[in-house]
Structures are given as C-alpha cells and as structure tokens.
Amino acid sequence: MKITEIAKFLNGEIFNIKEDEDITSAKSIYSATKGSITFLSDKKLLGQLKEIKASAILVSQPIEDIDITQIVVKNPAVAFYKLIELLYPEEENKEYISPTAKIGNNVKIGKNCYISDYVVIEDNVEIGDNVKIYPFCFVGKNTKILNDVILYPNVTIYKDTFIGNRVIIHSGAVIAGDGFGYYQEDGKHKKIKHIGKVIIEDDVEIGANTTIDRALTDETIIKSGTKIDNLVMIGHNCKIGENSILVSQVGIAGSCNIGKNVILAGQVGVADHINIGDNVIVTAKSGVGTDLPPNNVYGSGIPAIEWKKWKKILVYIYKLNELFKK
C-alpha cells in the first residue's frame, strides 16, 4: 500500500515525502525497517527518530529535523491501530461445516458460517450469520449465538447461554459453568444446583482461560462493549456494566454489580454482593470488600519496594498497637 493511499485512508497530511513507497508492514520505532510504518506516541522517543529506518512515521505534528516521510494525524496511536487492521486482514474462512463436527437435533445455522473439526453443537442451538467456530469447541443445548461471533479453539459454552453480536471468545474460556455454591448438611458440603443462565451482550471480548459462571436461578450478565482479559473469574449472578475493562487475574465473587466504564486492574479481588459504581477505577492487587461509589479511583495494593526496607517497615507495623497505647 502506497504512503499516499495510507494518508488518504487516515485523513492525514503528508510531510517531507521524497518517494511514494510501498508500505508492507507496521512496526515499532525500535524494529522499523524499510517498507514499514511506525508511529510516535511519546515525545520522549524523539531522540530515537534519527536512528530509525522506517519508510514513514505517523506523528501528531510535523518534525522538522528528521529525514523521514511523516503522515500527520490527530492521534498517531489510534491511527496506527486502524492501519494494522488494514495491513493485516483476518484470514477469510469460507462457508464450511467439517464432517467431523457433531451437530445435534433441531440446530439452526445461519449463512456463511465456518464450523471446524471436532466441534460439538448440542440440540436446539441457534447460530446466526458469519459465525466462526474453531476446532474442539463445545456449544451446549438451547444456546443462542447471534451474528459475526468468533469462538477460538477449545471454547466451552454450557447450555442455555446467550451470545450477542460480534462477540469474540478466546481459547480455553468456559462460559456458564456452575457457580461455586454449596450448603452444609450432616457436616458435609452439598452442591447447590445452578439453573440460571449467562448472557453475553454485543461487542464483548473474553480472553483465554476466563470463566464466567452460570447464575443460581437468574442471569449472569456481561453488558455490551465490555472487554475481559485472560484468566479472569466472574462468579454467579454477577452483572458487569457496559464498556468496562477487567484486566488479567481479576476475581469477582458471586452476586456483584459492576457499573459502566469500570476498570479493574490486574489481580483485583472483589468480595461477594459488592456494588461498584460507574466510572470507577480500582488499582492492581486491591481487595474490594465494601461498596465503591461512582466516579473515583480506589486502591490498596502495595507497590514493590526494596526488601530490606520493607522488613524494617514490618517491624514498625507489628509494634503499632504498643505505640498507640503509649
């Protein structure tokens, strides 16, 4: 793709062009070579620009003292992400159902669907148009999947689940497994049968090896636009609001209500029956044990410090009770 074509696609302005080169790859400033395009996201990297060998760079304003073709755009990082989609299109899968796929009774499959090897689809499942289901996926009975959904290899979807439009679920994810619920009888843990559902709304992405548990009697709901990282656990009866982000290793216990536009950073743990308001950010490794009002940043994680210094701090912590008495 020519530099001028890229500029037109991005509604950008070309600066310092000498040759309308072909751009065949998108790379970072550190790995850029001839034929590639990169972007400047931080002014701290200006010193690197005289060293780079890229054929073009995306910038927010022209840079006078570098001998490289520049495309001036409003937000270089966002423009770069869009350009990646253009330069590296997804492989097109033609309409296909593998002879090794096991399709149950009364299954409805829409147009232009790709169902790969050793997929199991149980009875009474409805699948919309342009759905891709990769090898070894399992779709339980009475599940409904809408249009343009991608299930990567080894995704497991238990029965009675709803998957909205343009949902992406990565390998190893388990949707609608039983919630973690038991009662005590005769000194033993007895399993509580979960008969609820999981609802995944439009434009949700679910990372690899993430688990979203079935509700006890009602619904576990992931609202539209939410993005969930790898290795996240969402308990039964939870409701996650629109456009929220759950980063890797977040764990949310049962019956929590998470608002819209919430960010839970890595390894945040949320106790059961907690309400988190809209637009909340919880910093990494924090434990949430009480409700959090909206529009604020919360955190309790301790950042790493030099080990000898931390041991001295611990000594003072253990003596706090004695010091307060004095």
Automatic annotation (TrEMBL):
GO CC list: membrane
HAMAP family listed in its UniProt record: LpxD
EC number: 2.3.1.191
Originating organism: Venenivibrio stagnispumantis
Pfam families per UniProt: Hexapep (PF00132), LpxD (PF04613)
Subunit structure of this chain's protein: Homotrimer.
Full protein name: UDP-3-O-acylglucosamine N-acyltransferase
UniProt family annotation: Belongs to the transferase hexapeptide repeat family. LpxD subfamily.
Tagged with keyword Repeat: yes
Gene from which this protein is expressed: lpxD
UniProt keyword list: Acyltransferase, Lipid A biosynthesis, Lipid biosynthesis, Lipid metabolism, Repeat, Transferase
GO molecular function: N-acyltransferase activity; UDP-3-O-[(3R)-3-hydroxyacyl]-glucosamine N-acyltransferase activity
